[in-house]
Amino acid sequence: MKYHQINSALFVKNRRKFMAEMKPNAVAVFNSNDIYPISADSTLPFAQHRDIFYLSGVDQEESVLLLFPDAPYEHQREILFLRETNDHIAVWEGEKLTKERAFQVSGIRTVYWLQDFHKILNEMMTYADTMYINTNEHYRASVETETREARFVKWWKERYPAHNVAKSNPILQRLRSVKESEEIDLIQHACDITEKGFRRLLGFVKPNVTEYEVEAELAHEFIRNRSKGFAYTPIIASGNNANVLHYIENNQQCKEGDLLLLDVAAEYANYSSDMTRTIPVSGRFTDRQKAVYNAVLRVKNEATKMLTPGTLWKQYHVEVGKIMTSELLGLGLLDKADVQNENPEWPAYKKYFMHGTSHHMGLDTHDYGLLHEPMKANMVFTVEPGIYIPAEKFGIRLEDNVVVQEKGEPFNLMRNIPVEADEIESLMNE
Predict the structure, then answer these.
(1) Which of 96, 119, 291, 327 is deepest in the core (most CB within 10 A)?
(2) Where would I find the Aminopeptidase P N-terminal domain in this sequence (predicted)?
(3) Angle at 253 between CA 248 and CA 255, to 5 degrees
């Protein structure tokens, strides 16, 4: 891996938290992701399942984690299974985890090769009453591929029909949404790499550069700072392209007078950052562009203040909508009649700001978090309002990543990334 090794104490702590929530006499199993084929002998780059990474730090395919806190013997309470490495694999694929190295990474002392998994699982199931299966229950999930985890669940249900079934996901949704200090440091590092990429762009963007050239500049800066690259598919949208919320073609020329919306961010050690900035291709905003820009910035700043312990996500978005409505009235995009006659299910402001303001962030860009439960300290959220005006051929979105504090306003992990319009203009014209 490109990133520096994470202290195994984080993963020891995460496992303890998870096992403390398990029912008595229960086993939990977590699988790595598959390496997905493209065609012929080509595959997509491996990306680890975030749950097994969160609990073990193991960032390798064909790995399995078994947790059994009430096992009769201490060495059976945490078990890691790995693909057996050998000299042939080392020559063709490079270094894989040895048992000793796996202990250094995870803090788990009991490590077996994967071929022993079924035999040892069978022994554990003779002691256990319940199995925790790990299904994907994220509110944005849309999975059409049968994952390695899903295949295991199907096999396990057929093999052990007499056992009770429990779900890992509700536990992980709560645990992963509240970050440990080590995790916040890793997200901060990802944000710092993103800052380097953005500052590089401010001296690069000018009329006639292409969106893909901008993407290449970012990729260069991210990778040279030990990131695998983008935390998500980058959105580099000039002019009217910014009014397509998930524009990812990135193949157009940036023209004089246009704005360039950049929803781009680096990952680090599997932790995400998630930034959006909007900059003038020519280095100067027009008066109208700056007026809209500053309206979005004011909404972002006011929305950020509301991310405090006890806040409910749904009500938060209602309040942000009121602030946005006021700004749109000031810009002349809405009038009082629009607001008075609005559909409560789709308020008037949604014509220009149709997406949500905040989501959990962490190991996943859209991270775990139960939206019906109140916000807690050390949750990490995005704050990303936008105003999109197809008739004027530009859209503006601004986004930071913030950590909810016990008291007071959130801590902005992107506090050092330029966002004020005057500062951006100044840096682009140095």
Answers:
(1) 327
(2) 6-142
(3) 120
